[in-house]
Amino acid sequence: MAESTRNLNITPEEIESGKTMAFVAYLIFFIPLLMDEYRNNKFVMYHTEQSIVLLIVNIIFSIISTVTCGIGLILYVASIVFLIMGIMNALGGKVTPLPLIGQFGEKFNLVK
Description:
By secondary structure, the protein is mainly alpha-helical. It has five helices and no strands.
């Protein structure tokens, strides 16, 4: 697992004001992207990146599970675990990437 090389410099104020919207990002990722107030919040955009990666992984898991029936339940459980971990990180004010997949969120470059 590759470590992030970027320095986010997220302030405690951004974390406190963005916890709820960071949570919402895991449920409906594009909502924070539509609101200017939250597009400038690095904490919210970080969790939006993570939720987009999770969405892409869920699509890949869905394709895999339709092709191979046996592994579908395992992949479904893994995606639920990742979702819960992301929500817990957002509500806890943590800037921690999701295991195995979170490192790819940096590619979206939403945190400026």
